[in-house]
Structures are given as structure tokens and as C-alpha cells.
Amino acid sequence: MNLIFVGSSSFAIPALEELLALRRHKIPFVISQPEKPKGRNLKLEPTELATAAMHNNLEVYCPEDINCPESINRIAETEPDLIVTASYGGFLGRTIRNLAKFKAINLHPSLLPAYRGASPIQTALLSGDNVTGNTIFRLNAKMDAGHILMQESLDIMENESYSSLHDRLANQAAQMLINLLPVIGEISS
């Protein structure tokens, strides 16, 4: 399958690495956010996902506006079967969401519709939840509100830290993606 992988934070890294380990999917390039100033000296640094992609010898494309004509054309030229997003931090417009044969999906670390938005892991912990999980859904115009394709719960351990839960959720999402890909054509509409 020809995939465009879109993301920024470390949450997306296990999914990308699982895809690469399978060696059955082509990823022409990874899309991430542009470099941002970090640290005491405000040195420009790539996102965590961009760094991981470069370490895996993947081309990384970091447009200022993912919905601009140049980005749309660049993605369209690859004739993707699927666009996979995970923790990207940007809105994909209708044109991009519809470029791929099987459209675009997102990996989100909550049991949607609970905890939409950018901080679902923190919200689950602050709310004292005992269970959270991941949702893979089809992207649409509303944030974290598309048709749910797959959902799995995950118990939150007593006194669990954000880092621990984040990593467990990222690994769960990666495995869910690997399980979903073989049947994505059957459930696509």
C-alpha cells in the first residue's frame, strides 16, 4: 500500500516504525510541522516525528500550509492509497482528505467521542479515569469527529504517569493501525 504518513510528536513514532518494519508499505515521504525554536537558545529543531523519519532515511516534507496547492500537488503525485495522521497539530482540508484512494485516517489517544482535541491523555489522567484507549477514525471537517473505524480500550494503571500512559497508548495505536490496514479497503466508503 502506498501511504503518506503525517504527524509531529513522539506519539506518531511507533506507528511509523511498525509500518517500516512490515516492509510491505511504500512511504514516499513523511509530512510534519516546520521546525520550531526550542531550548534556551531557541535553536530551530525538527519535530520528534521528523527526526525519527530522517533516522529511517525517509524524506520529510514540512510545509508551512499543508493545504496549499504545492502540498496538494506533491501528495497527489504519489497517488496514495491512504493518508495516515497521528498527532500532527494541523487541519487537513477536504482536498487533501480526499486525495487518497481510501481517504485519510487519524490515530487519536482517547475513546472518542470523549476527549477530543490536543490533550486527551492529560485530560484522562486529570479526570481520574480508570480506562482510556485509542480510536482510529476517518478524517472529516470537524476535529476528532469522523466515522470511527476501530477503537480499543486500555486500563490506566494506578499512579500512572503521563509518560508511561503516552507510550503505552502510542504502542497500542501502532498495533491497531497494523491490524486495520489489511481491511481498510473493505471498510472504506
What is this entry, summarized?
With 189 residues, the chain is an alpha/beta fold. It contains seven helices and nine strands, in the order E-H-E-E-E-H-E-H-E-H-E-H-E-E-H-H.
- The structural class is alpha/beta
Q: What is the H/E order?
A: EHEEEHEHEHEHEEHH
Strand order of the largest sheet: 5-2-1-6-7-8-9
Q: Report the sheet-strand fraction.
A: 15-25%
Number of distinct helices: 7
Q: How far apart are the termini? A: 17 Å
Using only CA atoms, what is the Rg? 16 Å
What integer is the average pLDDT? 95
How many strand units?
9
Structural description of this entry:
The structure is a single chain. This protein has helices at residues 13-22, 48-55, 69-77, 94-97, 120-126, 162-180, 184-187, and strands spanning 3-7, 30-31, 36-38, 43-45, 60-61, 82-86, 104-108, 131-138, 148-155. Strands 5-2-1-6-7-8-9 form a 7-stranded mixed sheet. It contains 7 helices and 9 strands; from the N terminus they run E-H-E-E-E-H-E-H-E-H-E-H-E-E-H-H. With 189 residues, it is α/β, with parallel strands linked by helices. Helix 4 links the parallel strand 6 (82-86) and strand 7. It is 32% helix and 22% strand. The radius of gyration is 16 Å and the shape is globular.
